[in-house]
Design brief:
- This protein is of the alpha/beta class.
- Helices cover about 35% and strands about 15% of the residues.
- The strands form six sheets. The protein has an 18-stranded parallel beta sheet that branches. Strands 2-3-4-1-5 form a five-stranded parallel beta sheet.
- α26 links the parallel β25 and β26.
- One of its GO terms (biological process) is response to other organism.
Length: about 850
């Protein structure tokens, strides 16, 4: 707690002392005195934190903590406001002239406040607060002291056994089997099952277990999982449903009426046996509309609805084939078993509660009200090693979280570690404590989420602390001193409701209209913004006034229609992240090269109107000067023109790059690119795309590839597979697209000890691929597309022992399922598309000659 909100303030004061306050006579001493006062208070805060963990903080001490936080906010406001006006004055008068006329700083600040007077007032308030803390029984606690007497070893959450079984989480084995039977063996009439119960009782987990069952997937023609929640857009949900069931919802006109969407969905489902889950339904109005889109087509279609509202559940119970199933809280004995598994998993006797803790543990369980999620969460808080698995609604990648935390100043510098590495440690601990849930995407990104019940708790607490708040059509009142604002659905009331210039972060969600007047108000009044997230907002222009946001560190424009970045963006000298993914920006202004603190420049866009080709992805053009941005860790995806070779040479200066993506690469750039890549010792992901499919790239001039590279994507024609790839011992994922290799690539790739994902699209022109014994020991996913010359695939016993997912698409010359596929005992999913009719017929369960090779695979998805 103390380090969370005081340490960044102390660092900010140190920044002021070293960079600015020396030019203000008298103020420097006041700032240093204030810093000293905060350092004196920190040990008292540690004591308050330690007692809070043991439940020993009284109401008076809680008020004391709130007062400390308020003063910390005041200090941040003073410093940020001061620095903002200094920066404005620099642009008006010139920095050198300002240093010579230091007194003019104070004059510039007087319309807001006298900084020296404000600091004195804060300092006096802190002293009074500190004295009251002593009266509340708080004592100085040295750094490193804690209410715990034993340090708990941390471990990486991605190692070992990551999740408990679903049955262990909520005891749903019997219920799920019965629901699966109802879904696959019941009558031909459409039926609706409503799972009802309070938050945290396991409705979503039960529904997800049924939905993900292999027999269920095989039984139905199409399936969809739709998360509804309290605030929903019916037209958007109809579109999502259409898309998931194969109705191409994304190609429907934006202004399509609700009635038309219902008709389209109903028509598409009329001849299908469909299975749909509507998760987290709150309002009966939802079902009154949605039911008209779900035909009772006498094909055995099934629907599950999860809800906390009994009225909603009963409303869906319209026929004798429908069922309302109310989930019950756990018995004390079941709750005890789960709690012990979660809280005491580190003991030698796994799940055994120490005798001296039994009484306290049972008291804790009694307060969990028999809710498995609450039991699991509390148990996770008492054990930093166990994890729990649940389902995801809205998810955010770990990389985005790191950028946001760093922009906010939440991440403290670690010894010999980057800020991103420290942020990863923070997230690991939250996962270990079961406060954040995640799933792994492509073996690289972690998609993170908190459970809806935990989300409610966090929002309530965040509002109490004035940490953040939501503004929406249904919630139009805000607390004073709010620091972070999440705006949902509309921006029309913002100017009326938000008049506090101290807001640091603004996020927009599902905004249908975003006027220029809103942006003008934003840039004029929120001058201390650090984070501005305008994702998917209906914007086509970014005003020049964006350059006035001196403190801005994170600018997220993904999904907007912005075409040009204004030149004033070069004034954002604190900017760390610039994300213009899926915008219409095609070239960066030269002023971007002034952003010396920029760590992440992300510009990947996807053309969704064409199939996969070299033109599917496009980035932004970068001119000379990119080498000045020496803090860059992410540069993806960029196009180099007009001096392509010069651009490659400038890359040599970016030695901190971890993620690099380059488009429109020509053959002449190959040598310079190789020299640059060899100097990027921190590179972890690299993507390269040639200028066209006929441009042959020679990438063999790299003798010492980046040692930590774990993801490589080559979308280009290659004469030979680069030999240095076999040296990438940390490589987890490899994509080869349009490579047209004539030499069999597997001999080079089979030795990679950590390769888990391999994709090949038009990558090989030979007739045979041979997966030899002992090769690809860690591979989990293998996807092969458009190998038009391939006739035979051989899989030796002992090859691909961990393979879980296999995809074959468009091998026109292959007549039968590869021999040896029966040895892949771990295979869970097999997808076959675009193969010759003879190939598909041989896989049919009844008379197929090759069916015996794949009958052990739980889910086989095959069609012509």
């Amino acid at each position: 707690m103390a380090e969370t909100f005081l340490s960044p303030i102390i660092e900010k004061l140190l920044q002021l002392l070293t960079e600015e306050a020396k030019s203000l006579k008298g103020v420097g001493r006041e700032v240093e005195s204030l810093k000293d006062e905060l350092e004196i208070i920190q040990p008292f805060l540690r004591d308050a934190e330690a007692k809070s963990e043991k439940g020993e903080v009284n109401d008076a001490a809680k008020v004391w903590l709130k007062q400390i936080r308020k003063q910390a906010d005041r200090i941040e406001d003073v410093v940020d406001e001061y620095l903002y006006h200094v920066e404005q004055h620099r642009h008006q008068r010139g920095f050198i002239g300002s240093l010579r006329k230091a007194g003019h700083y104070i004059k510039a600040l007087k319309p807001v406040y006298d900084i020296a007077s404000e600091i004195k007032d804060i300092k006096e308030s802190l002293r009074e607060i500190k004295d009251r803390g002593v009266g509340y029984g708080l004592r100085p606690l040295e750094h490193g002291s804690s209410s715990r007497s034993i340090d708990v070893e941390r471990r990486d959450p991605r190692l070992g056994s990551l999740f408990m079984e679903e049955d262990e989480i909520v005891g749903i084995d019997g219920a799920s089997k019965e629901l699966i039977r109802r879904w696959t063996e019941g009558p031909s009439m459409r039926s609706v099952t409503s799972l009802v119960g309070q938050g945290g009782i396991g409705k979503t987990t039960l529904a997800r277990k049924v939905y993900n069952d292999a027999a269920v997937k095989a039984h139905f023609d199409c399936c969809a999982w739709i998360t509804v929640s309290q605030s929903y857009d019916m037209k958007k949900l109809l579109r999502i449903t259409l898309r998931q069931v194969g109705g191409a919802g994304e190609r429907i006109e934006e202004d399509c009426a609700e009635e038309e969407l219902i008709s389209l969905l109903r028509h598409h489902l009329q001849k299908q046996r469909y299975a749909i889950v509507f998760d987290d339904v709150w309002k009966k109005d939802f079902w009154e509309v949605m039911k008209h889109a779900l035909p009772n087509n006498d094909k055995g279609s099934r629907i599950i609805i999860t809800t906390r509202n009994v009225v909603v559940a009963n409303l869906c119970n319209e026929s004798c084939f429908d069922l309302v199933q109310e989930l019950q809280t756990w018995s004390p004995e079941m709750a005890w078993q789960l709690f012990c598994k979660k809280a005491f998993c580190n003991d030698k006797s796994v799940g055994s509660c120490p005798q001296e803790l039994e009484q306290l543990s049972r008291e804790i369980i009694s307060k969990c009200l028999g809710l498995p999620l609450v039991i699991s969460t509390i148990g996770g808080l008492l054990s930093t090693k166990e994890r729990v698995y649940s389902e995801w609604n809205h998810r955010i990648t770990d990389r985005v979280l790191y950028k946001l935390w760093i922009a906010e100043g939440f991440v403290r510098k670690g010894k010999n570690k980057t800020l991103e590495e420290v942020a990863e440690e923070y997230l690991d601990e939250l996962i270990q404590r079961s406060l954040v849930l995640f799933e792994v995407k492509n073996g690289v990104d972690r998609l993170c989420k908190v459970h809806d019940l935990m989300h409610d708790i966090i929002l309530t607490r965040a509002g109490e602390l004035c940490f953040c708040q939501t503004l929406s059509e249904s919630k139009s009142s805000l607390s004073e001193r709010i620091r972070r604002l999440s705006i949902h659905h509309t921006t029309e009331t913002v100017s009326e409701m938000v008049r506090d210039y101290r807001i640091r972060s603004v996020f927009l969600f599902d905004i249908h209209k975003c006027s220029k007047s809103f942006l003008s108000y934003l840039f004029e009044n929120f001058k201390l913004l650090k984070i501005l997230d305008l994702q998917d907002a209906p914007l086509d222009n970014l005003p020049e006034e964006i350059g006035n946001l001196f403190h801005l560190r994170y600018l997220y424009l993904q999904g907007t229609k912005v075409k040009v970045l204004p030149k004033s963006i070069g004034k954002l000298r604190n900017l760390q992240t610039l994300d213009i993914t899926d915008t219409l920006v095609r070239e960066l202004p030269l002023e971007v090269n002034k952003l010396r603190n920029l760590r992440h420049l992300i510009a990947l866009s996807i053309n969704k109107d064409i199939g996969f080709s070299l033109d599917t992805y496009y980035g932004v053009g970068i001119r000379e000067g990119i080498g000045r941005l020496e803090e860059l860790q992410t540069l993806s995806r960029v196009e180099a023109y007009p001096d392509r070779v010069g651009f490659m040479k400038e890359l040599q200066k970016l030695k901190n790059l971890k993620y690099l993506g380059i488009l429109k690469v020509t053959a002449e750039m190959g040598k310079a690119l190789g020299v640059s890549i060899e100097k990027m010792n921190h590179l972890e992901e690299f993507s390269l795309t040639s200028i066209n499919e006929d441009e042959v790239l020679d990438l063999n001039n790299i003798s010492s590839p980046p040692p930590f590279l774990h993801w490589l994507q080559l979308t280009c024609r290659l004469q030979h597979l680069p030999s240095w790839i076999s040296k990438l011992h940390n490589l987890k994922g490899l994509e080869l697209n349009f490579s047209r290799l004539t030499d069999e690539p597997l001999r080079c790739l089979k030795v990679l000890p950590n390769l888990a994902f391999l994709d090949m699209f038009e990558a090989y022109e030979g007739e045979e691929l041979h997966f030899e014994e002992g090769g690809f020991q860690k591979l989990k996913e293998l996807k092969l597309y458009n190998l038009e010359g391939l006739k035979v695939v051989k899989i030796d016993r002992g090859a691909l022992p961990l393979l879980e997912k296999l995809v074959f698409v468009s091998f026109p010359l292959m007549k039968e399922m590869p021999p040896g596929i029966q040895h892949l005992t771990n295979l869970k999913y097999l997808k076959i598309r675009g193969m010759p009719r003879e190939f598909v017929v041989r896989l049919q369960p009844d008379e197929g000659a090759d069916y015996w090779k794949v009958q052990h695979v739980p889910h086989v998805d095959s069609s012509l």
